[in-house]
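I'll show one example:
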Amino acid sequence: MTIYVGNIPYALKEDDLKEVFKEYGEVVSIKMIKDKYSSRSKGFCFIEMENDEQEDLAVKECDRRIISGRNIVVAKAHSKKGYETK
């Protein structure tokens, strides 16, 4: 399972997110989605944690959490039709 994190402040970096989410377990990977031309963050990412229990806890505790003045949205990621998530 992978979690979706949206409404991220554009200035937030992967290391900043890792600091937030490591409270709930080991962060395996973070994929920040960036504009292919400007390399600027699009304001969302996907985070994979060590196991489903840690991801469930992160979703429960972080959804609607305020980070840098913005309420982030955290939910289980859903695969695009025809693609699979881990």
About this structure: The chain has two helices and six strands. The two ends are 5 Å apart (CA to CA).
